[in-house]
Specification:
four-stranded antiparallel beta sheet; six-stranded mixed beta sheet; 378 residues; elongated; alpha+beta; 17 strands
C-alpha cells in the first residue's frame, strides 16, 4: 500500500473566492427579479460560505439578500464555530429555549424590500419542515424555486475547482490501480472495498466505491454479494474520492485471470468505442446533453447490445458526486466550456457479467478534455 499523498488537503479556496460567489448569487437574484436566497446546510451552503456545518434538529440557515450582506441564523452556542469556519461575519444566534424561526422572521423583515412583498428563492434541498416554516414565518415574502440559481452558478467550474477535481481524479486512479494489483483469490467484495478505501486515505483523498465480481458486475449499482473472488472472472470497481470537498468518479472493469474471454473482449471494446463516440461528438456551445447520450447509445445498439445499456450516459460532477447536467435523453442543456461530466457507458448481461468504463471529462472551448486517463482497448 503506502501511497504517496497526492493532496495535502490544505485549503486553496480563499475568502476572495467565496466573496465572489456571494456577489454572483446576488447578481443572479437581481437578474431574476428575486430578493433573497435561503440555504440550509448542504453543498450549496458550503459553496457560498466555505463550510458545511451539517443539518440537525437545530436550525442553521444562510440568508443571501440581493442588496445587502449575507446573514447566518444559528444556535447561539454555534456562533463562534460559524464565524471561524465560514466567510460570513454576520452570524445571529438563537437560544435553546427560543423559536429560531422568530429570528429568521426578524431578519426577513430587515431584508425585505420597502413598499412591496419580497420574493425568496428556496434552495432545492431544503427540508419540507423548513419550507413550511419559511412560508408561514416570513410574512410579506413569496416563495420561489431556488434551484435555477444554484445550478446556474455551479454548473460552470472555475479553474480553482478544476484543479481540485484533477487532484481527486489522480488519487482515485492511483488507488484503483493499486487495489487491482493486490487482488487475490478468496477475497470478498467487502475486502476489496475496504482495501480501496485504505488506498485512498493513504493518498490524502478519502473515499470509496463499489466492488463487483463476476455476475454481480451485471447489476449497475451492485449489492451485497457472498461470492469470493475466483480466477478467470470480471472485476468492476466504481470509485470516487475527495480533495477539499471536490470529487471524482471513475469506473474500471478488468479480467482477473490469465486471458479474457472473447465475449468479454467484444463487450469491453464496444463500451470503449461508445465512450469514444460520446467524446468525439461533443462540441462546445452546440451539443446538447441528450446528443452525447445518443452518440454512445448508437454504438452499443448497433453492436447488438442496446437492451443491455440500461442507464444514462453520465452526469455532472463537482462538490456532489452526481449533479447537473445529466447526460440523458430529453436533456437539452448545451455543453458549455467549464462543464465537468462523466462519460460512463455500460453493457450489463444478467447472469453473465457487466462492463462499465467511466472517465471524467470537461468541455473546453476546443472540445472535450478527458481529465482522467482512459484505459486502452483490449
Amino acid at each position: 500500500m503506502g501511497g504517496t499523498a497526492i493532496a495535502a488537503q490544505t485549503p486553496t479556496l480563499g475568502p476572495p473566492v467565496f466573496a465572489q460567489r456571494i456577489t454572483r448569487a446576488q447578481d443572479e437574484l437581481k437578474s431574476r427579479k428575486l430578493d433573497l436566497l435561503v440555504v440550509e446546510p448542504s453543498t450549496n451552503f458550503q459553496y457560498f460560505t466555505s463550510y458545511n456545518p451539517g443539518r440537525s434538529e437545530r436550525l442553521i440557515l444562510l440568508m443571501i439578500p440581493a442588496n445587502a450582506a449575507p446573514v447566518i441564523v444559528c444556535p447561539s452556542f454555534e456562533v463562534e464555530r460559524i464565524k471561524r469556519n465560514t466567510t460570513v461575519s454576520d452570524a445571529r444566534g438563537w437560544e435553546e429555549s427560543e423559536d429560531p424561526w422568530a429570528l429568521v422572521a426578524k431578519a426577513g423583515q430587515q431584508l425585505k424590500p420597502r413598499g412591496r412583498d419580497g420574493v425568496v428563492a428556496i434552495e432545492p434541498t431544503t427540508s419540507y419542515q423548513s419550507y413550511v416554516r419559511l412560508v408561514t414565518k416570513l410574512r410579506g415574502w413569496l416563495p420561489h424555486d431556488g434551484a435555477p440559481i444554484s445550478e446556474h452558478l455551479r454548473i460552470i467550474k472555475s479553474p480553482e475547482e478544476i484543479a481540485l477535481i484533477r487532484q481527486a481524479i489522480a488519487a482515485t486512479e492511483a488507488s484503483i490501480a493499486a487495489t487491482f494489483t493486490q487482488l487475490a483469490v478468496g477475497m470478498s467484495e467487502r475486502d476489496v472495498s475496504a482495501l480501496l478505501s485504505r488506498e485512498m486515505a493513504s493518498r490524502g483523498s478519502p473515499g470509496g466505491g463499489l466492488v463487483q465480481f463476476g455476475p454481480s458486475s451485471a447489476l449497475p449499482h451492485g449489492g451485497p454479494s457472498a461470492g469470493r473472488l475466483a480466477r478467470e472472472t470480471v472485476v468492476l470497481i466504481d470509485a470516487g474520492s475527495r480533495v477539499e470537498d471536490y470529487t471524482s468518479d471513475i469506473t474500471r472493469t478488468i479480467w482477473f485471470g490469465d486471458a479474457p474471454s472473447d465475449e468479454f473482449k467484444k463487450v469491453y471494446n464496444t463500451v470503449h468505442d461508445a465512450q469514444t463516440a460520446a467524446i468525439a461528438n461533443a462540441k462546445p456551445g452546440v451539443t446538447q446533453c441528450q446528443q452525447v447520450d445518443r452518440a454512445a447509445r448508437k454504438v452499443i445498439t448497433d453492436a447488438g447490445y442496446g437492451q443491455y445499456f440500461t442507464h444514462r450516459l453520465g452526469h455532472g460532477m463537482g462538490m456532489d458526486g452526481h449533479e447537473p447536467p445529466y447526460m440523458v435523453e430529453g436533456n437539452t442543456t448545451v455543453l458549455e466550456p467549464g462543464i465537468v461530466f462523466t462519460d460512463e457507458p455500460g453493457i450489463y448481461q444478467l447472469g453473465k457479467f457487466g462492463v462499465r468504463i467511466e472517465d471524467d471529462c470537461m468541455m473546453t472551448a476546443n472540445g472535450v478534455e478527458v481529465l482522467s486517463h482512459r484505459p486502452a482497448k483490449l
